[in-house]
Each structure stands twice: as C-alpha cells, then as structure tokens.
Write a structure and sequence with these properties.
This protein folds into two domains: 89 residues; 219 residues, Bira Bifunctional Protein, Domain 2 (BirA Bifunctional Protein, domain 2, 2-Layer Sandwich). 41% of the residues lie in helices and 19% in strands. The longest helix has 40 residues. The structure holds adenosine-5'-[phenylalaninyl-phosphate]. The site of adenosine-5'-[phenylalaninyl-phosphate] has 24 residues, from strand 5, strand 7, strand 8, strand 9 and helix 10.
C-alpha cells in the first residue's frame, strides 16, 4: 500500500507539472484528491487493513495528500501569474489609433473647470505680487478651524459655520482661515501668503450658497500693517482677475479672528455681491500663533472663489459649478488642454 501511495504521488506530480492552465491543475489533482480520487480511496480503505498497517499507511496517505495540494497550489499561482503577464502584452489599446472609417467621434475634448481657471489666475496674480502660495488639509482639528482663531467651544460664532463633523472629533474645514495658524506655526514673520482651496459647510444650498465651495485666504503679517494695505492688495487682486476696474465697498462686520472686521462687496457690471470677509488680525490670533502683537500686525481676508467665478461669467446659480453637468462646463472653453 505504501508503494502504491508513492506511485500515486509521482503520477499526480507529473500531471500537475504538465498542466497548461489553472483549470488543468484542478482537473489533475481531482483525480487523486477528489471525492472518488485514488488517494481518498486509500484513506477510506484503511479500516480494512491489518491493525499494524493502519498507522503507517494513514500517515503516508496524509503526507501524499499534503504534497499534492502544495504542488498544485504553487503550479496554479505560477500559471495565473503567467496568464496575467501575457494579458499585459496582448490586451492593450492604442489610444492614438485613428477610428475606422464611418465612426463618429466626440471631438469636443475636456475643458478646464471655470473654478480651476480662476484659481490658476489668482495664483499667478498673487505670485506676481510676491505672495507665497500655501496649502492646508481639508480635514482639520477643532483647534485650527476654531479654537486658535479665537472661537473657543460654546462661542456663538460657531453657529456662523454649519460644520461637517467627523466621527473622530475632527471636521471638514469650514473656511481657509486655519491656514493662517499653520502659516504662523511654520515660521516667524514677515508672512505674506495666500492659500486657495476647497471648504465645506453643512448648509442649505441656494443660488449663492453651496456646501462645497472654494476660498482664497490672504494672510499678511509685518510691522505697521494697516487697513489701507489690505484694500490695496484686494483691489489689485480683483481687478486683475475681473479684468477691469471694480468698485468695492467695505461694511463693518464681525469675525472673531479680526479686529476691526469687514465684509467687502464688489460691484461688477451692475450688481453688488458680497465676496469676502477681511480685517486686521486679532492680537489673540497672533498670540496663538506665537507672534508678539505689540511688535507685529497683519491683515487677513477670505474670499469666495466661486462667487468670483459667478461675477466673471455672469452665472446666476452657484449650484451649476459643482454639478458636473458637461453642458454647463463646456461653455468655458478657455484654457482647454490638448
Ligand atoms: C469666512 O469664512 C472667514 N474665514 C473669512 C475671513 C478671513 C474673514 C479672514 C476675516 C479674515 P464667511 O463665512 O463670510 O467668512 O465666508 C467668506 C466668503 O466665502 C463669503 O464672503 C462668500 O464669498 C464665500 N462663502 C461663504 N459661504 C458660502 C457658501 N455657502 N457658498 C459659496 N460661497 C460662500
């Protein structure tokens, strides 16, 4: 019986080695290990053997079974890997090939999103003015989004920002102002920087309010910075992006992280639109960032980029912007790539 098991093993290994596909491997092993397979039959017949034979035959049969399974597994893996490698050689598409005659092809191509177009222009104008471009994470902690911006827990100003809270206590940043804190943490003044990016608010959407939109944060800390500097920078920025002289008006407003604080409206081709919040950086915010407010002062602003895009293209409803509707997006063909 032991010899029979040896020869079954040899036969099985030969079959596995000769298999050309993973299915062949399964078939080759099935003949030995399947329900009616030869090795299984040996195992089933052990009861009929002389008692002293049962132990050694049982042990050997199990060893043979394991050896066949192991060889089959290795061969199967090798064949699958080889088949996948071959696919890479044979199953590829030449995207540069012209279509066969008679096929109509959508040649409209992609367009750069109107928000991205304006973001890129803002970046160019800001770099031209000598400002650094900074970046910050979308997932923020409470301290950077609120606490260090002079909005402690239970402060009523938290109600101004309907917040998407995450289960771990972090949040989706509700504005780009946390980048102010990150800028102060990363080095001493002077700081002359902007950060442009996506922000999120859990709010009712309407024609001028989205729950996912974009802001550009300006943050300027130096000696003897005044509201005049701030207005100059903002007006230069807006005129460059809107392409003509614009009227701006400042209204006193309240943001906990600036004092005094303002909202700036812009009149462009007729209507006034609220575009941004701004002001002189609150001494508490400077202190939270490790900066001495008796020596340094600064201004900050946060501007809604989507609103700027609406002004520029006379878009009546902000919700078009993030809709992903190609009929809308294809109208903005400037900056098409390719
Ligand atoms: C802020 O977010 C302040 N962080 C701005 C700031 C920065 C003030 C630095 C002072 C100093 P506010 O919530 O007002 O403020 O938003 C700023 C701008 O973002 C608004 O003027 C508007 O243009 C835009 N905005 C706000 N909410 C929405 C919204 N739901 N959809 C689209 N744009 C919005």
């Amino acid at each position: 019986m032991l010899e029979r098991l040896e020869s079954l093993l040899a036969e099985a290994l030969e079959g596995i080695e000769g298999a050309a596909t993973a299915a062949d491997v399964d078939q080759a092993t099935g003949r030995f290990l399947g329900k009616k397979g030869a090795v299984q039959e040996v195992l089933r017949s052990i009861g009929k053997l002389a008692p002293e034979e049962r132990g050694p035959v049982g042990k050997k049969a199990n060893e043979v079974k394991t050896a066949i399974e192991r060889a089959a597994g290795l061969r199967r893996d090798a064949l699958i890997a080889a088949a996948e490698a071959e696919l890479g050689e044979t199953e590829w598409v030449d995207t540069t090939m012209p279509p066969p005659p008679g096929y109509s092809v959508d040649r409209t191509g992609g367009t750069i999103h109107p928000v991205t177009q304006v973001v890129r222009e803002l970046e160019d104008v800001c770099v031209g003015m000598g400002l650094d471009l900074l970046d910050g994470p979308w997932i923020e902690d409470d301290e950077h989004n609120f606490g260090m911006l002079n909005i402690p827990p239970d402060h009523p100003a938290r109600d101004m920002h309907d917040t998407f809270w995450l289960s771990d206590g972090n949040l989706l940043r509700t504005h780009t102002s946390p980048v102010q804190i990150r800028a102060m943490e990363s080095g001493p003044p002077p700081i002359r920087a902007v950060a442009i990016g996506r922000v999120f608010r859990h709010e009712e959407v309407d024609i001028t309010h989205e729950n996912t939109f974009h802001q550009i944060e300006g943050f300027y800390v130096d000696r003897e910075v005044s509201v005049g500097h701030m207005i100059y920078v903002l007006q230069t920025l807006l005129e460059n992006v809107l392409g003509e002289k614009v009227d701006v008006r400042l209204r006193p407003s309240y943001f906990p992280f600036v004092e005094p604080g303002f909202e700036m409206d812009v009149r462009f081709q007729g209507d006034w639109m609220e575009l941004l919040g701004c002001g002189l950086v609150h001494p508490r915010v400077l202190r939270a960032g490790g900066i001495d407010p008796d020596v340094w002062s600064g201004f900050a602003f946060g501007l809604g980029v989507d609103r700027l895009v609406m002004l520029r293209h006379d878009i009546e409803d902000i919700r078009h912007l993030m809709s992903g509707d190609l009929r809308f997006l294809r109208q903005f063909r400037e900056g098409v790539e390719g």
